């Protein structure tokens, strides 16, 4: 089959587009309003953007009246947010926290989730989540929609701190995704979680360089030159 997205002429009972870009990781975002109210919301339009330095993005569709959702407002106005990893064990809380409620409502309380302080930013972390990314706001953009409620607000943040719970690591120092079972979004009302992993090493030209990149080694900031180096 083929259909044009502008015409939406697929002839199916449900639009299949979101089932064609899957699985999508879920960014479970905590922010603080200017008044200090905690906000929590899950976003399936979420992903990693590079790693040296690491950036992440999440995008939020507008509220029905066209206004920005609280996560976007808070991240842009305060310059900080935290990405908490959504997992199979926490799936029901993820669903509860997705409700559209007034800005004065703390979704962590609504979902019965304990929060703990972050180290480098003010928004709290979710104690039950095994991985947290502390982020500083970097940039944002607006993607126009056909209607006001379909306007999309994209937020990009620089990851400045990473928390990984000790029991979420394997004996050889890798993140134990089979134990964590990260949650991911499919189309319709469907979700999935990581239940199997297989390894496939790069082959062909420059395989060694590709292996290094996949491993995620970061160069970090260059070290300042010593006195002798600077004098030459």
Domain unit count: 1
* Mean pLDDT across every amino acid position: 91
What is the β-strand count? 12
Summarize the biggest pleated sheet. 7 strands, antiparallel
Order of helices and strands: EEEEEHEHHEEEEHEEHH
The first-level CATH class is given as Mainly Beta
Structural features, described:
By secondary structure, this protein is α+β, with helices and mostly antiparallel strands. The protein has a single domain, classed as Pnp Oxidase, Chain A (Roll). It has helices at residues 70-78, 91-96, 107-110, 177-180, 207-215, 227-231, and strands at 24-25, 27-32, 38-43, 46-51, 54-61, 80-85, 115-116, 125-126, 131-143, 152-164, 183-185, 191-193. Strand 11 and strand 12 (191-193) form a beta hairpin. The protein starts with 23 loop residues before the first strand and ends with a helix. Residues 223-232 have low confidence and may be disordered.
Could you list some keywords that capture this structure?
single chain; 232 residues; Pnp Oxidase, Chain A; 7-stranded antiparallel β-sheet; 6 helices; 12 strands; globular
């Amino acid at each position: 089959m083929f259909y044009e997205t502008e015409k939406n002429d697929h002839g199916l009972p449900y639009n299949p587009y979101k089932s064609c870009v899957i699985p999508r990781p879920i960014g479970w975002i905590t922010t603080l309003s200017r008044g200090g109210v905690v906000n929590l919301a899950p976003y399936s339009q979420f992903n990693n953007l590079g790693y040296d330095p690491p950036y992440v993005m999440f995008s939020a569709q507008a509220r029905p009246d066209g206004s920005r959702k609280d996560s976007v407002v808070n991240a842009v106005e305060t310059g900080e947010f935290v990405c908490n990893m959504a997992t199979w064990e926490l799936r029901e809380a993820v669903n509860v926290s997705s409700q559209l409620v007034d800005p004065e409502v703390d979704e962590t309380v609504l979902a019965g989730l304990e929060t703990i302080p972050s180290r480098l930013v003010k928004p709290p972390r979710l104690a039950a989540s095994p991985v947290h990314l502390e982020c500083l706001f970097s940039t944002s953009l607006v993607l126009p929609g056909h209607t006001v409620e379909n306007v999309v607000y994209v937020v990009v943040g620089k990851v400045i701190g990473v928390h990984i719970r000790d029991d979420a690591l394997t004996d050889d120092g890798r993140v134990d995704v089979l134990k964590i079972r990260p949650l991911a979004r499919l189309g319709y009302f469907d979700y999935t979680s990581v239940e199997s992993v297989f390894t496939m090493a790069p082959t062909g030209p420059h395989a060694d360089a590709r292996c290094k990149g996949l491993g995620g080694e970061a160069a970090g900031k260059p070290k300042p030159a010593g006195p002798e180096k600077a004098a030459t």
